[in-house]
Amino acid sequence: MTIKTNRRNFLTTAAVATAAGGLAAPAYATGKRTLKMATGWPKKFPGLGVASQRIGDAITAASDGRLTVEVFGAGELVPPFEAFDAVASGAADLYHAAEYYWQGKSTAFNFFAGVPFGMTTAEHNAWIYHRGGQELWEEVSASFGVIAFMAGNSSAQAGGWFNKEINSVDDLKGLKMRIPGFGGKVIDEVGGTAVTLPGGEIFSALQSGAIDAGEMAGPWIDLGFGFYKAAKYFYNPGFQEPTSAESLGVNLDLWNDMSAADQQVIKLAAAQENVMNPADFIANHSRSLDILLKEHGVELRSFPDEVMIELGKATKTVLADAAAADPLTGKVYESYMEFLDEVSGWTEQSEQAYLRARSLARAS
Question: Per the record, GO CC terms (predicted)?
Fold first, then answer.
């Protein structure tokens, strides 16, 4: 049964019971719903779990209680990587997670989270909101019974935590690294082994030696998870996610059964978090990096240019293979790359040029 059918039957039964026995009308009869949100991270965890709760609270408040969102942390309702299936089946109503977790269903989902050497956060938002990205996303998700929206971004990812130095691309061969999405496929391409783990399992895997390296987001989240206790070297910048978008997924039957007003509440709550969340990360990354370096003696390293060049070559192969895998992924790839080619020139003439000028001015 679909959600819409269940709701119709429920309302019919309730109406009969109310007429016969004078009972109070149930919540659904007044248009109220309680929505379950499954998430990909611990509940109320800084940056990510907090974002999920903020979205839920915003929906509840803006709808004046018509929609009450109950937020579940990773593993409380379903395991983090099963949130999509839970929403698609109707076992949950919403998810807050990263789209590359669903790459096993369609490689196209990766493009709506983050692409190695791809768009920055501002560029990615421009593609989603103004150059057809959202429409393509809906085309990919619809076949699974889901619709999703941008709902946060941890911004450019750090390179990750390593138990050995990376001085050449040979040091990546045989390396077991926690890294999802296209970034993981790039590590595979250069001879390493990508492992996909929820954030809450990275520390123990690093500490036990089950993995040799791992990445999650950047200084703020990494400090919270205590990765500095399990790995010596912290590499930055990363290559894998120059943007790291989070998304709010909604069961499609539920979405279609909602009023236009309630749909707008959900879209606006997601859009609000797409501003609040990256600001939260930027506000906390710098002070967290300072703590890691000064209080915990973390060694900050950068990947050599040779390594970045080889990772770039591997990325081209991975993306080309993804585009060839199926027509819809190829369609998303073409749109993404076309806009990346267009927007990168302006980014270099605006943001990048300004940052160079600012560095000169601050150093003088």
Answer: periplasmic space; tripartite ATP-independent periplasmic transporter complex
Measured distance CA(148)–CA(248) in Å, rounded: 5
Q: Which pLDDT band, with edges at 50, 70 and 90, does 199 fall under?
A: confident
Structural domains present in the chain: 30-154+243-282 (3.40.190.170), 160-241+284-363 (3.40.190.10)
* DSSP state string for 242-289: SS-EEEEEEEHHHHHHS-HHHHHHHHHHHHHHHHHHHHHHHHHHHHHH
Count CB atoms within 10 A of the CB of residue 173: 11
Q: Are strands 146-153 and 67-72 parallel, antiparallel or unpaired?
A: unpaired
Query: Residue 149: enclosing H or E segment and its boundaries?
Result: strand 146-153
Give dist(CA 52, CA 41) in Å, integer. 9
pTM of structure: 0.89
Show binding-site residues for substrate: 157, 178, 215, 241
Cβ-based burial of 222 (10 A; exposed 0-12, middle 13-18, buried ≥19) = buried
Which amino acids are annotated as binding site, given as ranges?
157, 178, 215, 241
The three-class DSSP label of residue 234 is strand
Q: What are phi and psi of 342, to 5 degrees?
A: -70, -45
Taking only the tens place, the pLDDT of each residue in 291-329 is: 999 999 999 999 999 999 999 999 999 999 999 999 999
What's the Cα-to-Cα distance from 358 to each of 121, 237, 286, 287, 354, rounded to whole Å?
20, 19, 18, 21, 6
Q: What angle do CA 296, 297, 299 make, to 5 degrees?
A: 130
